[in-house]
Amino acid sequence: MRHSEFHRTERIGWLRAAVLGANDGIVSTASLVIGVAAAAGDRDAILIAGIAGLVAGAMSMAAGEYVSVYSQADTERADLEREKKELEEDPEGELAELTGIYIDRGLSPGLAKQVAEELTAGDKLAAHARDELGLTEELKARPVQAAVFSALSFAAGALIPLALAWGFTGGWLIYIVGGGSLISLALLGALAARTGGADPVRGAARVAFWGAAAMIVTALVGKIFGTTVG
To answer: How far is 211 from 29, CA to CA, in rounded Å?
Structure first.
């Protein structure tokens, strides 16, 4: 009978990319908008900066995630090729190695050998990939998926402060964009934590804190340079 327990590890790949992208989209675009607004930029300059930040950020996130995760995929493929070669050249030694792994996990030597033999009776490489290398289908590196999720989630996150900047003008713009973005960050942090099985309150507080820090620093920089140039 196939067990039907639900585990969250299968979400790690896309969840990491989506949360990181959305978080960066909100923080970077809100900080950019606030910085330009603090430097006394007009509405058009603020919106152009925000749109440019959205496009550039989404492309940067996609490229960065693709390169990073593709490097991980290359490493996984290299490990599997090496393991495949070792299985062909020394099957008995590899069986003994797998047996040793199960002994280290608490099985008796006799049972460990039996388990190793039965698991490798079908797909030897899959058994060694899982228990020796720690590679599973759920945690497999997927560069294209990571790149797409990162780009789309960054754009989605960036649209929030951009929409707020579009809808509000004047002296309240900085506070509206900052407040709305912090609320969005907190909700995102709570949702990500809940999806991953962690504490939503702690997740919300962590994301909101660093988002607020980024916006405050950018606002100060914009104010200083805006005053200097002016």
So the answer is: 11
- Taking 3-state DSSP, the helix, strand and coil percentages for the chain, each rounded to the nearest 5, stand at 85, 0, 15
Residues in the chain: 230
Q: Is residue 4 part of a domain?
A: no
Checking if the pLDDT of 84 tops 70, the result is yes
Q: 123 burial class (0-12, 13-18, 19+ CB within 10 angstroms)? A: exposed
**Is this prediction's pTM over 0.70?**
no
pLDDT value of position 5: 46
> Residues 115-135: pLDDT tens digits?
777 777 777 777 667 766 666
Estimate to the nearest angstrom the gap between the alpha carbon of 99 and the chain centroid: 35
Number of domains, the chain = 1
- Give the structural domain span for 184: 9-229
Residue 106 DSSP symbol: T
Q: Is residue 36 part of a domain?
A: yes
